[in-house]
Design goal:
Layout: H1 5-14, E1 22-25, H2 28-38, E2 42-46, E3 59-62, H3 65-75, E4 79-80, E5 83-84, E6 88-92, E7 98-107, E8 112-118, H4 125-131, E9 136-140, H5 149-159, H6 166-182, E10 185-195, E11 201-203, E12 207-210, H7 222-226, H8 232-240, E13 243-246, E14 251-255, H9 258-270, E15 277-280, H10 287-298, E16 305-312, H11 317-331, E17 337-343, H12 346-356, E18 361-364, H13 367-378
Parallel strand pairs: 14-16, 16-17, 17-18
Antiparallel strand pairs: 1-6, 2-3, 2-6, 4-5, 7-8, 7-10, 8-9, 10-11, 10-12, 13-15
Helix pairs in contact: 2-3, 5-6, 10-11, 11-12
Bound molecules: guanosine-5'-diphosphate (GDP) and manganese (II) ion.
Guanosine-5'-diphosphate binds next to β10.
Length: about 400
Amino acid sequence: MDLLEYQGKQLFARHGLRVSSGKAVTTVEDARKAAEEVGYPVVVKAQVLIGGRGKAGGVKLAADAEETAMHAGNILGMDIHGHTVNTLWIEHASDIATEYYASVLLDRSAKKPLVMFSVEGGVDIEQVAEESPEKLIRHHVDPLEGLSREEAREIARRGGVDPDVVEGVADALVALYEVWKAEDATLAEINPLIVTPEREVKALDAKVSLDANALYRHPENQSLADGENEDPIERRAKEEGVQYVKLDGDIGILGNGAGLVMSTLDVVAQAGGSPANFLDAGGGSDAEKIKQAVELILANDAVKAVLFNIFGGITRGDEVAKGLIAAFDEIRPSVPFVVRLDGTNDVEGRRLLQEAALPNVHAAQTMNDAAELVVALAAGQKGAEVHV
Ligand code: GDP
Ligand code: MN
């Protein structure tokens, strides 16, 4: 569960990390009022769940009320890589002497928390990792011991920070580790962590992801989950009780059983495609449930083709086929569907699908065939001539 910058900063402040004071607003008028309160100059910042806001024009400095209103007006409603800006964060602008990078995340292969630090902050950290990996310090933490001050100082020294800010950076790292651990975050990142001309170390940006499965331990964070952080389709799926996770690609996926859906994602990726979602329809085969799932998948505009991967166990293939036919009769999808039916009563199921001759619906027998076909359809390489 990703948090907006200003929400991340609230968690930072809770654990003693320095941040600038500011206000979240949703109108130009409130932006102006907030700027008066925090004091000029201010920085007007788009609050969207995607990085690179600065480059996209979503972060602007304003010296007075007029500039604040102008930038707020421009940024509100702006589209940043597919995310519409509804909220602005207005904070007192900082003077910057140096920009660093710091993050804490879980390194699953090492089974340990990983602290990363670089004096090359403010830029894309993947680029630093690729072009000058020696400038990215990686330090694994013993999860039972936590990050000690001495370790934090050592990270700062190894990173090559100015000697007079070793203590300040160590403070920030210890606090960031505490945010990560105490809030059950999966990621806590600061880019940039700045040093001001007065040699104060503070977080100018915040990227925090919380573990949604641990939210029950943090009732005070519950409200963060209700807002605009959640993807609207994921929210709808949750309300409908469907296991759906939005992904970045253009091939909609549905399967029965979480394991099957996960391997479907892999097979589609192997065939050169990019899945648009995870959706586990469970053991359901009735038309109403399938209709609901199809509507969720198609609510994502990026979807160009859909793969249904059904393995009949207790769920019988012919029943699934009947459900599909009834659902598609009603929905009439505009993008092509590939349906792979295997398992109990699969032959009968495929026969029913063939007989129904639903436009835009293609049957496939194996998972690999289905994946290849759906990838080709999404790429627009095959048209209506595709058969069963
Ligand atoms: P991102 O582009 O989404 O990562 O947004 P950031 O919050 O990191 O801001 C982008 C850049 O804007 C930063 O790297 C800074 O260079 C600049 N910036 C942000 N806040 C301030 C500020 O208070 N003062 C100054 N001078 N620059 C700022
Ligand atoms: Mn940033």
